[in-house]
Specification:
The complex is a heterotrimer of chains A (about 280), B (about 400) and C (about 325). By secondary structure, chain A is mostly helical. Helices cover about 70% and strands about 0% of the residues of chain A. Chain B folds into two domains: about 240 residues, Rossmann fold, CATH 3.40.50; about 130 residues, OB fold (Dihydrolipoamide Acetyltransferase, E2P) (Beta Barrel). Chain B is about 30% helix and about 30% strand. The N and C termini of chain C lie far apart (about 55 Å). By secondary structure, chain C is mostly helical. In chain C, helix 2 crosses helix 13. Chains in contact: A-B, A-C, B-C. At the B-C interface, strand 1, strand 2 and strand 4 of B face helix 1 and helix 2 of C.
Chain lengths: ~280, ~400, ~325
């Protein structure tokens, strides 16, 4: 008790230092993105830009590369992937959680096995497969390989298991088909789980770099993370002001969404580890 | 409205027999209660009737035709669940209308937004809303239509569940312990309401409960189930007065029926604690039997009288207000009996008082060793026989 | 009445059982129609390819080649002799050994400090978690320029302000891998913190009271006697998750060093990427993928076994 004030101060001192280290990269990113070339390389570092000309970086970033297109691609790919994952995972999760059928235990075992496989492992064969079907370098190449999420199946199954059996019995008595039960009864009760999974999926694919790097050649098809790479030019020397402007634009949607819906984000992103 | 015929239904799960050759016919408009201890298979039987589970063998027929091939929705039955099973994210109105929506509207018409544009959808929706409101009004929950189940009390939820079952006129109502989640006071009220609902709808009801009071108070007939078998199917009073087996006798009635060990003498008379009782059975001579007497059948006296059969000591007195229970034990025996008497009679006894018990011979029940009821004749016991045993 | 009903229906017993089989078939078909599409895709896109990777690793196939033949363990033999593989494998281990303990310890420290007081909990949690949502690739460039830049980077500016020697962190073979590790730690601390916070929430408060009555009431004693043992399973879990994540380091390598300087930052996934998608040596890339997969499986298995052994903590 005697040291409580000192202890509290110590706690805040350490945590605040940590907090500064955590946010500093974001702050510097925005700071540099608002500076002119001259300011950036000025030997005297200052956090705030001295002139408003740095805003030019953003104009240039959008002019130099189809940044809008990258963002749009990101939205398209993330939405497409999430919809496909939900469409396939939900009925399967329901069958695994609530129906008795031959093959269920085996299917569940394969789902658990699938959870162990990191996403980079299927890359080579999936690449070959897409090439065979002539699908490389297309939206399909970005969306299709992620259309199924065994984690999504597993997670939604866990959620569905908590739905009382009586509710499903009641729905059957009320005349719902099994397909209708999935979408009208199970889905609404598992909305929190689906949102958390959706955040996990969207954050994962917005930020993914490995697969778009492999699958995409055409700059117009690049996702945001891949698009940033096009701002790096070895020959002419990278313009860091513009690069940081692009980085800010790419990071902004998720960071803003996180700050608005922290609880959901933290739940969703920690869930990935909760296998 | 239809009769339901249950024929030779058997079901086992993971090697455990749950139902064994259960056969039962439920008449059109009848209120039949399946009663039994938990785990006796009564809920499974109900779920098999509903089509929610499959029998291993046997047939369920509704209105004369087999429904074994039919999925639950095609059997046209309504069910009320113990947990009420209300859809938590739908309003009360949506909960009540869902069975109608699913039956009257096509897949496309049910679609949100788009469905509303289809011809006829609006009219059907309005019609359903009217019917849902009517049912809600009849159960006094019309003011709750826009709420969600989470905002309702237990009693209100139970009524919503009833309303959802009532809203379409099904072939029959199946109820699986619908009152067991209510507190004692609400339960009494709800019993009366369900009985009233049955009278008004004149529909076939199959009602599952472990509570014998619900079974006795509401049913036209009671089916007592134990260990996956039907032990007796009869009107409530008959079940109480004329149980076919000792298990049924013990299960129905509170406090439990008194059972004393007896033997059959060479002349067919029953002997209990070395005393000849005024009944004769047609059972094996010298066989042990169980002699059962309901607590309220005892006639108690402070002094030994002509008909006295048992002499014991009052060990415990339970005052219940309208009646008093006297627990009587006997010297040299572990057996004890409970007598239900008027409070005015009970005041004559203290703990430790001697007490003499007599019984109307016609109301003595005798069960053989295997628990089956033995037919009894009353007889007047010759005095010399009685004297012989002092 | 019951006996009557039995007799009436006995004759139709066999047709009844046929009807029951009919329903069983219908229900099985329904279940498979719900699960089937997902199962098919799971095999097409995950399990099948994973099996194909193992098979490919025993062949000599190169992307686009018309023929392939079995070479048994040939790829793995090549791997053992491959100086580059040894380097990338070692680099990966060094990277994991550097980032995992620091990221777990910092996460644990942050969680303990946040939980030890009441003020600012939500704020600190938010701030520490922020990097988890960040897109790593652009953030890598922020680190490259703002932190590790030889002249205008914060690190060298600070060092020179104190008159200390400076380095070109990302171009120095001794520091490049560690520099990438710093970025990895920055991004993963927040997740570990949240996982530890969840673990801390699960410790019953009674235990601290009991420990206090038993004389363990100092902060250190409380941590040693109650917190740390109770966090055991959570810690193992966080360690495994962090190790697996660290094993997958890739984005920062591609963005900042391309494996350089002189292969100092060539890691397993980077080599796999180069072999498979730059040199198109699919079979060899598959063999590298197998090594990667094996490590992830071993780590997961290790965690499962250890947690099982430590269940008495839970």
């Amino acid at each position: 008790m005697r040291t409580s004030i000192a202890a509290a101060l110590f706690r805040h001192l350490i945590l605040a230092t940590g907090a500064v280290l955590m946010v500093l990269p974001f702050v510097l990113m925005v700071s540099i993105s608002l500076k002119t070339e001259g300011e950036i390389y000025h030997p005297q570092f200052s956090l705030l830009p001295t002139s408003p000309d740095g805003i030019e970086n953003y104009v240039a970033a959008f002019a130099m590369q189809p940044l809008w297109r990258y963002l749009l691609n990101g939205v398209l790919v993330c939405v497409g992937i999430f919809l496909a994952q939900a469409l396939f995972a939900l009925p399967c999760a329901y069958a695994l959680a609530k129906l008795r059928w031959p093959g269920r235990n085996l299917t569940m075992a394969f789902v658990l096995l699938g959870l162990l496989i990191p996403p980079q492992v299927p890359a080579v064969p999936v690449y070959i497969m897409l090439w065979k079907f002539g699908l490389l370098d297309s939206y399909a190449a970005l969306i299709l390989p992620s259309a199924i999420s065994v984690f999504g199946i597993f997670l939604m199954r866990q959620f569905f298991r908590t739905v009382p059996d009586d509710l499903i019995s009641a729905a059957r008595m009320d005349g719902l088909s099994e397909v209708a039960i999935v979408w009208r009864i199970m889905l609404p009760t598992a909305i929190p789980g689906l949102i958390a999974f959706g955040i996990l999926s969207v954050v994962g694919h917005w930020n993914d770099f490995f697969w778009p790097l492999i699958a995409i050649q055409t700059p117009e098809l690049a996702t945001p993370a891949l698009g940033v790479m096009f701002f790096v030019t070895a020959e002419a020397g990278t313009n860091f002001g513009r690069l940081m402007a692009a980085a800010t634009v790419v990071n902004a949607p998720l960071v803003i969404a996180f700050l608005i819906a922290q609880r959901w984000f933290i739940d969703g992103l920690t869930m990935s580890s909760m296998k | 409205m239809a009769e339901i015929s249950i024929a030779n239904i058997s079901k086992s799960f993971a090697g455990t027999i749950i139902l064994e050759g259960v056969s039962l016919d439920v008449a059109n408009g009848e209120f039949l209660t399946l009663v039994g201890p938990s785990g006796c298979g009564k809920s499974t039987l109900l779920r098999i009737i509903a089509g929610l589970e499959h029998q291993d063998s046997g047939t369920i027929a509704i209105a004369g035709s087999s429904v074994d091939m039919k999925a639950p929705k095609a059997r046209d039955l309504s069910m009320v669940f113990q947990s009420y099973a209300l859809y938590p994210y739908m309003t009360v109105e949506e909960n009540i209308s869902l069975p109608l929506t699913m039956r009257r509207m096509g897949t496309l018409q049910r679609l949100p937004l788009l469905g509303g544009l289809l011809p006829g959808a609006g009219a059907i929706r309005r019609e359903i809303a009217v019917e849902a409101r009517q049912v809600a009004e009849s159960l006094g929950i019309a003011h709750l239509l826009s709420r969600r189940p989470g905002q309702l009390s237990g009693g209100q939820r139970q009524r919503v569940a009833l309303a959802r079952a009532m809203v379409r006129q099904p072939q029959a109502f199946l109820m699986d312990e619908p009152l067991s989640n209510l507190d004692a006071k609400m339960r009494v009220k709800a019993r009366a309401e369900i009985s009233e609902m049955h009278r008004r709808l004149q529909a076939t009801f199959i009602y599952v409960t472990h509570d014998q009071i619900e079974a006795m108070t509401m049913s036209d007939r009671v089916a007592v189930m134990m260990h996956g078998r039907l032990l007796q199917v009869d009107p409530p009073q008959r079940i109480y007065d004329e149980p076919k087996t000792l298990e049924v006798a013990r299960f129905i009635g509170t406090p439990e029926i008194n059972v004393l060990p007896g033997t059959v003498r060479h002349d067919g008379a029953i002997e209990v604690f070395d005393k000849i009782w005024p009944v004769v059975v047609d059972a094996g001579r010298h066989a042990p039997v169980s002699v059962a007497v309901r607590p309220e059948v005892w006639e108690v006296a402070q002094q030994p009288g002509e008909g006295s059969l048992l002499t014991g000591t009052v060990r415990h007195i339970e005052l219940l207000g309208s009646e008093t229970l006297l627990h009587v034990s006997f010297a040299g025996s572990a057996a004890s009996v409970v007598a239900r008497v008027e409070p005015t009679v009970a005041t004559r006894y203290r703990l430790g008082s001697p007490i003499h018990l007599a019984v109307d011979p016609a109301r003595i029940l005798v069960f053989t060793e295997n628990g089956k009821r033995a037919a009894t004749l009353t007889r007047s016991v010759p005095s010399q026989v009685r004297n012989l045993h002092g | 009445m019951a006996e009557l009903a039995t007799a009436r229906h006995r004759s139709s017993a066999s047709s009844a059982s046929r009807r029951l089989i009919g329903r069983w078939v219908a229900e099985t078909a329904t279940a498979w129609s719900l699960a089937g599409p997902a199962v098919a895709l799971m095999w097409l896109l995950l399990l099948g390819p994973a099996a194909a990777v193992v098979l490919l690793s025993f062949t000599d196939w190169s992307f686009g080649q018309p023929t392939m033949s079995w070479i048994g363990l040939g790829n793995f033999r090549e791997m053992v002799a491959d100086q580059l593989f040894r380097t990338s494998f070692l680099n990966t281990l060094v990277y994991v050994a550097f980032t995992m303990p620091l990221s777990v310890l910092l996460g644990l420290g942050a969680a303990l400090l946040i939980e030890s007081g009441t003020s600012g909990r939500g704020f600190y949690r938010t701030v520490f978690f922020l990097p988890v949502t960040a897109t790593l690739l652009p953030m890598a460039f922020v680190f490259q320029f703002a932190y590790f830049h030889p002249t205008v980077g914060i690190i060298n500016q600070t060092l020179s302000a104190f008159g200390l020697p400076t380095r070109d962190w990302l171009r120095d073979p001794d520091t490049a891998l560690l520099a990438l590790g710093v970025i990895g730690i920055w991004q993963s601390v927040g997740l570990n913190m949240v996982l530890f916070l969840a673990g801390l929430k699960g410790i019953p408060k009674d235990l601290y009271d009991a420990a206090a009555l038993d004389g363990a009431d100092g902060a250190w004693e409380r941590f040693r006697r109650v917190t740390w043992p109770m966090l055991g399973p959570a810690t193992l879990f966080v360690l495994t998750v962090t190790a697996i994540k660290s094993f997958q380091v890739f984005d920062t390598v591609i963005a900042l060093t391309q494996g350089g300087p002189g292969n100092a930052t060539n890691v397993l996934l980077f080599q796999m990427y180069q072999e498979g998608f730059s040199f198109l040596r699919s079979a060899y890339a598959s063999a590298l993928t197998c090594v990667f997969l094996l490590f992830v499986l071993v780590l997961t298995l290790l965690q499962v076994v250890l947690v099982d052994r430590k269940t008495h903590y839970g």
